Amino acid sequence: MNPVNPLRPGFPKHKKSSSGGIIITIVLVLALAAGGVAYHRVSVQRKAAAAELAARKEAEAKAARARKAAELEAARRKAEERARAEAEEKARLEAERLAAEEAAGKRQNKEPEVAEPSPEEPKEEPVVQEEDPRLEIFKKPVLLVSLKANNAANRKLFTDAFNLALETGRYDLYADFLRSNLERDAVKVIKFGKFDASMYDQSPYLMRANELYQLISKVGAETIQEQIKESSPRYFYPWLFSDPSDPLRLFLRTMAREQTPGEEWGGILRKWAEFWMKTSAMPRSRYSSLALACAMLNPRIASSPSKLRASSSTNISTTPLTLEQVFEYFMEMDEARELLTDISKLSPSELLFVVDVRLPRSEMDWARKKVRLTRKGWGGAYSMIRYRMDRAALGKDPYTNYTFQEILDEGGICMDQAYFAVNTAKCNGIPSAYVTGDGNRGPHAWVNLLTTDETWQSYGGYGYNTGHFSHPHNCKSKHESTLLQGMDKKVNGARLDTSLDYLSLADLFEEMQKPDCARVMLEAATQATPGSPLGWERLIALMGRPESGTKLEEWDELVAMIKRKFRSRPDYLAMAARVEDEYIFPMRDASTNKRHVARDLKKLEKETDEGRSDLTSAAIKRQADLLMENGDKAGVAALYRKSMKDYARRAEVFEALMGQYYEYVSQDQEAVLQMAKEAESSYNRYIRTKSGDYFKVKKEAAIQRRIAGYYEKGGNGKKADSLRKDAEKREKNSKKGIREEN
């Protein structure tokens, strides 16, 4: 019988057993599961190790920060204890000396016949501090810019040198120590002509060394040593150099922001120390900005009287608080939470517009309790004062004492409205400035207020763009754009402090006579905060020095960039114009310069909504100066003839142009007479109206009187008298409908 062939057709196939495959599958699954568990365990271990490493690094960094703070605090306490011990020892010796003198006097009274010569006291040899072996530390190099700068040995060397300077008062040696190390390492943050921000950020000792050096070098080591002998600075300087709130950096940034000359720093520090001593130990850092603002306030303002008037009928104090009392007042009100701002968050530059208040305590309390407005809504204080036409037109003075309550009850004009709004704001801790300017309706007063911690706002300006205020630090007249844009944190961004630090490093490079490095830092400052003019002004000044060798192409590039980036900022356009006048136009032909100026004037009018009146008149004067350089007097006359027509509808510009025109022709009587005729023609055609508006007529009459003056200087006195009489008549008629209030 033939065997059965399982592959032969007709026979069914037998299925193979699947038990072996199942076993293999199970084994594979178990193996994969075991591998997954092992991988998960390894992954968890790795994550745990990484977390542990990060935690250890964070703990080490935290410990390092704590160690540094403890070292600085220990140094400060040690310096204070040493100063206190010296004072006690001095007092003890003085008491012993007085007791000895008293005893000697008694012996002399009892035994006058015995006159034994008193033995000479041995003269105390002066201590030559240079012989102190510890001072050798000031000759050692310390790393400021390096990966090794943060190692323990280098940190200890930097800290030990700092502590020894505090202990011995040898700031002269310490300044030399800082300078030698800065000269070696500071240039390392500049690579291939570019600023290396990452290297700078990793070098905290560089910035600290520069801050300490800038203060000591500008104030003077001898000045600091002398001030430390006084009671207030003795404890102040250890705090200034080592307090965790970093008052030294606050001071340097404020000085840079306000462009305070270095020779004034010592006096400001002495005053700051006096105010600092008036605070208790706990909140000294909280009120350090307030104290610095008081120290920076111009003495003329600090000693000026209030505007209140003494009267026999009322018992009202007109004496303003002293600056020390103002400081104590704002501390007291802040602690009682009676202010509308947190003064600890305001900068010294902002607080200058608070501490310049000149009022008695009664007025300050009234403003705080009676004016019910929010900080954002404080502009409403301006309109709280009812406008009085009899005060504006008839000269009515309704006040007895000129108190806030009286102004509120009686009303007033723009200057009274601005006075009320500005000073009540200051009393509530709101920085504010009194602004004045000229326009189509004559002189006007309004206010600028810091309504939030970031933004200044203008109130009551009614479209005037010529506003100026007096800065409380130096009493210089500033355009209000300095506040509205220059100090606006939204405009400048959060990097303004960084920019100020870059300016400080630029100071160092300039002192080291490294203008290329200084220029790199100034350019970095302009890039950090382009909205702040501080870096730009410094950069222009550096480029303008003869030794800088700045080429015409570089000036062209700088001016083009400023005009492109800041075409809506009149202050920047004025800056660019100044650069052209000083550094570009002298190198070009007059016709090209004239075209540039004319084009810039058109852009100014277009980009800034008819421009700023003062900048418009300045731009026209630039064109006239270029014409006069070529002796083109006829061109000057034609320029002003056309400009007085073009800008006649802006009375303040027209008036400024007349004054400029007269300056060019004042030596030629015939030309002056011609100028007066041209001015009168434009005035009659474009300015003089039949308006019954008192303010409009008053402005027109003022211009008419000025034209009369030009006629008189041109030799036509009869015409001058006629114009003056007409102006007086028009102004008198404009007052007819105005009645004096009872």
UniProtKB/TrEMBL annotation:
<feature type="compositionally biased region" description="Basic and acidic residues">
    <location>
        <begin position="101"/>
        <end position="113"/>
    </location>
</feature>
<feature type="compositionally biased region" description="Basic and acidic residues">
    <location>
        <begin position="718"/>
        <end position="731"/>
    </location>
</feature>
<keyword id="KW-0812">Transmembrane</keyword>
<feature type="region of interest" description="Disordered">
    <location>
        <begin position="712"/>
        <end position="742"/>
    </location>
</feature>
<keyword id="KW-0472">Membrane</keyword>
<feature type="compositionally biased region" description="Basic and acidic residues">
    <location>
        <begin position="120"/>
        <end position="131"/>
    </location>
</feature>
<feature type="region of interest" description="Disordered">
    <location>
        <begin position="101"/>
        <end position="131"/>
    </location>
</feature>
<protein>
    <recommendedName>
        <fullName>Transglutaminase-like domain-containing protein</fullName>
    </recommendedName>
</protein>
<feature type="transmembrane region" description="Helical">
    <location>
        <begin position="21"/>
        <end position="39"/>
    </location>
</feature>
<keyword id="KW-1133">Transmembrane helix</keyword>
